[in-house]
Specification:
With 224 residues, the chain is an alpha/beta fold. It is built from 8 helices and 13 strands.
Length: 224
Amino acid sequence: MKCLLVEDDQALARELNQALQDSDWIVELAENGQEADFLVRTEAYDTVILDIGLPDGDGTRWLSSWREDGIDLPVLILTARERWADKAAGFTAGADDYVTKPFEPAEVLFRLRALVRRTHGHAHPVLKVGELSLDTHTQHVTLVGRPVSLTAQETRLLSYLMHAAPRVVSRSELSEHVYDRDHEPDSNVIDVQVSRLRRKLGAWRIATLRGQGYRLLADEPSDS
């Protein structure tokens, strides 16, 4: 999953960035609202962490603009303001959740995972597609109850497919959401990693729809 972190406090940004990366998130940083606005409108993200107190204005200003323009990706706001009126302003602007400073990075991670799950229509923290399971908190994958050893990149790719299932996910969507924009994969990298997942999970579980993309299957197709 890919997150845009909008925070001008460099120490806090480093702490959150490290916590997210340690949990296999792709993180991109913005230090002000104008930079965040450009990135939100030109790049693909699964969620945004938005500080309210930014050097170029209140973060709710940018958030309101995104919502007015139909940009509906989930946004978690950070605020040092404890008054209910300030929190209400964030929700009115279009926030999906908020965390009040100071906070534990683990709380942010729990809330982000929940936001992304709900965006894809999942309420439970353990995603299941047939006999395949992914614990979104630990990133542990099991197949028929047995653990599956995956690389970090394979886990990110599978996680995105599981969140999206049974929807077909295009190659370009995977490239945008599973890989850092500064290290976008070559044309065959996704194919290679899908092939590796098929060897570990069973070839039939990831179907290729020519000209459309990939779909994670819950049941093996019948021969008929």
